[in-house]
Amino acid sequence: MAEPEIEKLRSVDDHLNLVLDTVQLLAPMELPITDVNGLTLAADVVAAMPLPPFDNSSVDGYAVRLADLDGAGPDSPAELRVVGDIAAGSVYEGILEPGTCARIMTGAMVPHGAEAIVPLEWTDGGTESVRITRVPERDEHIRVLGSDVATGEVVLKAGARLGPRQIGLLAAIGQVHAPVHPHPRVVVLSTGSELVEPGAPLGPGQINDGNGPALTAAVNALGATGIRVGIIGDEPQGVLDAIEDQLIRADMVVTTGGVSVGAYDVVKEVLSTLGTVQFTKVAMQPGMPQGFGTVGEDRIPIFTLPGNPVSAYVSFELYIRPAIEKMMGRETGPRRTVTATCFGAFSSPNGKRQFARGVYDAVGHSVRPVGGHGSHLVGDLALANALIVVPEHVTEVVDGDDVEVIVLDGGGR
Ligand SMILES: Nc1nc2c(c(=O)[nH]1)N[C@H]1C(S)=C(S)[C@@H](COP(=O)(O)OP(=O)(O)OC[C@H]3O[C@@H](n4cnc5c(N)ncnc54)[C@H](O)[C@@H]3O)O[C@H]1N2
Ligand code: MOO
């Protein structure tokens, strides 16, 4: 008997390429530095002031002139008159005269005439006069003006990812705003008349909307802004209106459900009329039915994901995550994998790339499959921390095989 013909499906790589060719880097804007965590800098930042902004002490001690300490040592301390007390934030007026010193605190401005700071530990701690038993080098314990950052220096380059350390630097140089590619606003809509808001009573045949909360969390975990609109039914005009209403505030729209071949697959029906959204079968499992294109005058990218929760989540990791990374100006591309030894056996469909759920052990470089193939298995999905990638031509994974694994949750892109 002849082999059944395998339906021609779009490859995972071709689908990702289409997505990445379509989505665009978001236009730069100036945002307050309190709102730029995780964002990408859109232009070089030049320091408008030096750091440190003035010579200051790195220790609690005494500001001294070196000539006064000639020959000082443990058995022959130098004795100096203490003429001032300089706290951080205060200034010593005048010049330090020969034979005198000033008590100085960490971060306080070094007085004119001082050439080094003697740490408290090298002295008897005197307040009227002080005995010093060790001589510092010139400039020792002085943090010199501009020695960290010079005025006019490029301190952060366009393309840098802003995190706590970079935001601290921006604040230190007095920058209130930063030019960044902003957070993509990703609107998440769940279609299906069987869906109920979690917590509300379930009628016969109804289920809780799991996809909306899951995908919104996935968007937020990337540093973009997830906007969960909630459940929209199965009525074509209602679905169309809901999508159009959201375009004003969306940089991307994500829907789940209604894209296979059923009589109520409304997303497919509605968006087919708008023209630019293609509905395809991608050679992957789960996540075969995929819709992608743009909607509205601003050509907002839209992903119409399959309703099955595992399919929707895996689709997010494979396509939406790289798309959001591109919009944010981050490095992007296919998900990276690591090689691991698979403890467990399972089958895989011929001609489709399978993304089996697994528990990855980074120390042992191994992975254990969890759950079965079913795209509804959210209990097992929640236990997983990795996707085991089984190539299209492989139909069996046997115990001890080396497999490629996408590490989820902070495993990098
Ligand atoms: N005759 C065929 N039937 C199906 C095919 C096919 O090729 N021929 N493909 C199957 C595959 S694969 C998938 S994946 C699903 C995709 O279906 P839809 O995207 O049309 O999604 P729905 O039918 O609306 O729902 C599927 C499934 O998921 C549940 N669901 C939907 N939304 C949610 C949500 N927000 N939270 C939790 N669960 C949700 C829904 O109740 C269904 O059980 O089609 C197969 N069928
Ligand atoms: O391709 Mo579907 O996403 O397996 O359930």
How is this structure best described in words?
With 413 residues, the chain is α/β, with parallel strands linked by helices. It is built from 7 helices and 28 strands. The strands form 8 sheets. The chain has a 6-stranded mixed beta sheet with strand order 16-13-17-21-20-18, with helices on both faces. It has a 5-stranded mixed beta sheet with strand order 8-5-7-6-9, with no helix packed on it. A 5-stranded mixed β-barrel has the order 22-25-24-26-28. It is elongated. Molybdate ion binds next to loops. Ligand LQZAQKY5 binds next to helix 3 and helix 6.
Fold topology:
Blueprint: H1 12-22, E1 29-32, E2 40-41, E3 45-46, E4 56-57, E5 61-64, E6 78-86, E7 100-104, E8 116-119, E9 129-132, E10 142-143, E11 154-156, H2 164-172, E12 177-181, E13 185-191, E14 195-196, E15 207-208, H3 211-221, E16 225-232, H4 236-246, E17 252-256, H5 266-272, E18 278-281, E19 284-285, E20 289-295, E21 300-305, H6 309-327, E22 338-342, E23 346-347, E24 353-361, E25 366-369, H7 378-383, E26 386-390, E27 396-397, E28 402-407
Parallel strand pairs: 6-7, 13-16, 13-17, 14-15, 17-21, 19-24, 22-25
Antiparallel strand pairs: 1-12, 2-12, 3-11, 4-10, 5-7, 5-8, 6-9, 18-20, 20-21, 22-28, 23-27, 24-25, 24-26, 26-28
Helix pairs in contact: 1-6, 3-6, 4-5
Bound molecules: ligand LQZAQKY5 and molybdate ion.
